[in-house]
Every structure is written in C-alpha cells, then in structure tokens.
Amino acid sequence: MSISEFKKGRGAQLNTANKFHEHSHEIRDDFLNYCASEGEEAEESRTTIIETFPKTIVNKVTSPDVGLEYSLNPYQGCEHGCIYCYARNSHEYWGYSAGLDFEQKILVKRNAVELLEQKLRSKSWKATPIVLSGNTDCYQPIEKELRITRSLLQCFLKYRHPVGMITKNALVQRDMDVLRELAQENLVHVNLSITSLEEKTRRILEPRTATIKKRLETVEKLSTAGIPVSVMMAPIIPSINSHEIMPLVKEVAERGALGVGYTIVRLNGSIGQIFSHWIKKAMPDRADKVLHQIQQVHGGSLNDSRFGTRMKGEGEFASQVAQQFKIAKRLYLKDRERPQLNCKLHEEFKDGQMKLF
Questions:
Q1: Domain at 9-19+46-334, CATH homologous superfamily
Q2: Does residue 163 sit in helix, strand or coil?
Q3: What is the pTM of this model?
C-alpha cells in the first residue's frame, strides 16, 4: 500500500481490540468494498472531544526509570497521532482503542485547575516537581481553544510551585509570559520533543505535530527568554531516525538547549500491532528490517516491560546509540546543565500569597 492510501492526518491506520472488553469488532473487507463503491467513509474520522471531571489530577509515578515522581495530564488521548506513542495503551483503560480512538477521542479534564489548586493548598502536600504531559501532550491542538494548560501554569505561578513540561508543539510559545515569570524564580523547566530533523520523517511519524522548523525555533525562543529548555530525542527508531543523533544534538545545542535525552522505541501492548500495520503501509521496503532491529534491542520481542532496559534497550545497536549520545554531549553540550527546580518557595505561598508572619 502507498502513503496515498493512508487515513489523512492520522498516525494509526486501524483500531485495535481493547483487551479490557469481552467483545471486539473488526471491519470486514466486504464492508470496505461497499463503502468504496458508494463513496462513503468506513469510519468516522473527525476528532471528538469528551468532557470528564476526575476526582484527582496529580498522579504518583511508580516506574523507577522514568525520571519523574508526579505527573499531570489535562488531556487523555492525543490528536498529534504519533505512531509510536507509549501512551496509546492507556486509552484502553477509558474504554477506547489504542489505535485511531487514541487520536480521535480526546478526553478533557475540565476541572483540572480546580483539582490542582486543591492539591497545592493541601497541608500534607510537600513541594516536589510536577510534570505536565507525563502521558499525553498538554499542548495538543485542542489546547489552543481550551487554554487549560495555560491556566495550570498560572496556578503553579500563584502558588510558587515547581513544574516541568514535555511537549512537541510550538504552542508553548503562547505562554512565554507565564513561563518567564516562573523561570525568574527557578520554577520551570521545558522539554521539547524533537525526533528528527527531516520534515518528511516528522510528517509520517507524527502527523499533527508542529513542524521541525517551528520546534527548533521554539527551543531558541525559550532559551533566549531565559526559560531553561532541553530536548528529548524520543524515541530512537532503528533505520528511521537513528542516523540523526549527532546532527540533531549539534542543532539543538546551537539553539540554546541545556541538555538532550533519549529513549529507544518499544512497542508494548497494542502498539506493536499498530506500529507493525503502519510501517508495512508507510515503509514497505524496510518494514521487516526495522521490526527485526527493534526486536534485537529488546531481547527478541517488540514488547519490553523490563525496568532498567526497556527505555534504552540492550545489545550492539543500543550500545552504539548510547556511545553516540555520549560523544555528542561532550562535543556540543559540554559544561551545560539545567538548574535544579526550586521547591522552597511553595510553603510560603500555600494560601496563594506570601505569608508575612
């Protein structure tokens, strides 16, 4: 199949079965043929926004190799449509598929700011960095309209609480006024996710994300404004972007990034089926090679849940990637480090203003 046969603007090309459901369904070929003959769509392709009102918003992260203690996700599901996204599996807990549903059914936590304020005012809460987008991107397209992420940042500023951010959307530039105020008291750090320098690669891997040009521009603008910014090259995918490590680190360093991190792709749960189906349509000439190389990195399987190895892999390819990053950091990021976030101010601002006595 060719790229032209893709569902336009989507990463996943199918809905996988939800493992939590007793029943599943599939679209039969005769139905697809009927739709084609009648000029009809087999599936609804528009994005649906679903409002939710959870009881809590700050999540304790128990994984020992993620590098954060608490996360906050104002949205579940992500319209960016990154084909490799590890968060896809979490959509099954909400009753949806990790495939197209993940990109088309976006759950919005309408009371996110109220819940965060309750958390930060709690007498038992001790300030520790909370990361926005530990799961799905807080600056995905719907944020432009709803502005929940901006309101969350304003809440962190009000209570002088440290916050980290991970995004691949240039919309973060909209909130530079709030980020600048947070940065002045060392309360924020931003991670820009940049997987490739090649726009063609970006378009097929991450169909609804900001362009590479806009993301590089964002790194530079944040850095110039005094907002600490680093870059995540995640994930590294063999034979797709693995050749770009050195030039990408050099480029983001020149734009002012304070550091670079990475992970190697892992295809847990339904993502293995979604990615395999996608790559055989998008890159039929190298699909088997890429899938085989991913298996070599993860002990012979696409699925790798082992703490300690799942993020960086093992074997010759993983060692080569680690060595390239080590060299790149030494060449382009020597003596740079991001400042430690300030956890000391919050106690004095628990009621939303500085205590005088």
A1: Aldolase class I (3.20.20.70)
A2: strand
A3: 0.87
